Amino acid sequence: MKLLLKTLRLIGVRKKYEVHFHKGLNYISGPTSTGKTAILELIDYAFGKTNHKSYIEIGESCTDVELEFYISENLYKIKRPLSAFKEPVLLQTYDSVKEKFTQARTLEIDILSNEKSLSYLLLSKLNLTNLIIRGGDFSFRDLFKFSYLKQTNIDNENILNEQNWALNGKEKATFEIILDIYDSLLGDLQQSLKIEKESLKVKEIRYEAVREFLKTAEVENYETVQVKSVEIDSKLEDINSKIENYKSDILKTEVGNDVNELIVLISDQKEKLSNLRNKFLDQEQYIQKLQLLENQYFADIEKISEQIAGIKAINKYEYLYCPNCLRPISLHEESSCLLCHQNMDDIVIEINDLKKERKNLQKRKMSFTLILIQKKKKILE
């Protein structure tokens, strides 16, 4: 269980005033009338005190007080107006994912029997609700109020004398609760210390193992490792330098000239191969175009052949009227009917021409295909 103050903030008209607290012991010191007691009283007010002393400087320049504090691992922020004592307070929880305070809720001021009060909610986070001390309710601000001592009490030599606690039984009981919290924190700290000791023991074992290995490797210390590392780097640089020199010498000799000629020859062959590939692509595209043209001729021939077959079928019969234009056959000489005036000889000639053109296309296609196959074989050889 952890209860830590983080920041006290006064929201000013022109600027903000902040006091930051740190984990561990915090002390506030300074000359008289510099605001030391005001800091403690404003913290007490933020936690639910009915009112606060009216400081002129604060009243003229500030409007609200904010207090950020931890309960366990959760960070909370209280915001309360400085002048409106009876207004509810605003409590927010810090969202570590969004990195801002969210989940705002308004709570009543220190009405202990009310579950919607600020004191009840904060005590529930500490599992200290429904406590009765000396016949009175226990509030969250009691934890803070009795956790600090005024200057007059510090000067009292009998401050730790239990006979003085009889005058204020609530103070004694509150101190007992605070001490229980510290005992709990101390237990957590002892457990953490135990874990750290075990971790340290493991690290010591690893350290001894590494030290023994370094002894076996004749490495005395870190400086020795650095020296050897520098020596190895220097040797590597010498080796790389020699390799570069060998390369340069090879290029200067006759073997180097042969290598250069071979590189030029390979480059030329690559360029020729690239040109041949481009030609092959062009020829393949041309063959594809011939194939499309052949298909078109074939389709045209099929259409005309179907027309001829239809005309031949019609010519088997004698008609008084044309089945196409429905006029008497005797009037066809002056008519524009394509069926009866169609010249069959012309159609046959057109079909033959198309067939010849198709055969020529097929021959050209086969010729180009054979040429491509032969050239590819030569390249592969």
TrEMBL record:
Residues 344-371 form a coiled coil. The keyword GTP-binding does not apply. Pfam families: AAA_23. The keyword Membrane does not apply. InterPro entries: P-loop_NTPase, Rad50/SbcC_AAA. Keywords: Coiled coil. Residues 16-249 form the Rad50/SbcC-type AAA domain. This is AAA family ATPase.
